[in-house]
């Protein structure tokens, strides 16, 4: 079931050469799914660090093995060679693709996976791992179909149809969850949990528990992620006035900005600026 035109992009630089195909989802999925993409190519760096966003991912490896790198000591590298799910994260994820990459991905909105998939997002938050443990043979069959399909457009269709046919469960997410997520996103993470709770007519504890169950993270953590992403979007080519940037993005002071950069990227703001970015959602670390 084709859902629209595919946007094709080629990256060719000192970081490597790769092609990305992106497409908006079917209208029935647009409240839940932000984007489908298919990427293939090779990078020249050893690994990159994926920055946290208020979204989760279905990731299907259709090419050589890749690796999830867990910090040590000792460092652990987990082979990624099939189909994985990555929940919402409160920190960065390090990955390596030394042999090249062919990857199909689905990006879910903060509550999108909770609406589509029959698994507890609270248990999947801050975790990345094989989907077969949850989906069983259905995930294996989907990947086999994809491997036997050469066309990028048809591969995207297959995953979209799988979500529509197998995963679209109609599970109800509390309206207050959607309302809270919208308020946090619209404010760029500047809204406080106590203000959200007051406007919602409930306690902070109740609101935090509601979001933690539905999406895996409480409002405060989601607001910090949005604020960090907003700060990233405000960075220009040169070194900014960090104190002014902190104030503009709703940080209490510059030290709070630095703390969030260190937690969410593993780098100081100045070191982050010196690092190469293959795309807006990641940074090269070595």
From TrEMBL:
Alphabetically ordered keywords of this record: DNA-binding, Transcription, Transcription regulation
Pfam families hit by this protein: HTH_18
Residues covered by the HTH araC/xylS-type domain: 174-275
Residues annotated as transmembrane: none
PROSITE patterns: HTH_ARAC_FAMILY_2 (PS01124)
InterPro entries per the UniProt record, alphabetical: AraC_XylS_family_regulators, Homeodomain-like_sf, HTH_AraC
Name assigned to this protein: Helix-turn-helix domain-containing protein
